[in-house]
Design goal:
0% strand; 90 residues; single chain; 4 helices; mainly alpha; Non-ribosomal Peptide Synthetase Peptidyl Carrier Protein, Chain A
């Protein structure tokens, strides 16, 4: 099974970099600072995360700490899926 980072990296490569495989997106790279995604891209990324991982991204959570790098996205998705699973067992 692919990690969240790999799945999101593939999504970004296919949808924002149009499959350019010579562009390297490191786990820590700022997707916004590098111009890989813009504000519209953030909305597209959120839709992908919600559909792929069954999470709900709240407006207050749309911040760089959650969505600006592959590492941040992986931590955010892990936290959201844990919270979702915890609420089901409570």
């Amino acid at each position: 099974m692919s990690s969240v980072k790999n799945q999101v990296r593939d999504y970004i490569m296919d949808n924002f970099l149009m499959g350019l495989r010579d562009v390297i997106v490191t786990d820590q790279a700022s997707l916004l600072d590098l111009g890989i995604i813009d504000s519209t891209g953030v909305i597209e990324l959120i839709s992908f995360l919600e559909e792929t991982y069954g999470i709900r991204v709240e407006d207050a959570e749309i911040v760089p700490d959650n969505l600006d790098s592959l590492e941040a996205i992986e931590r955010y998705v892990a936290r959201k899926t844990f919270e979702s699973a915890s609420s089901l067992t409570a």
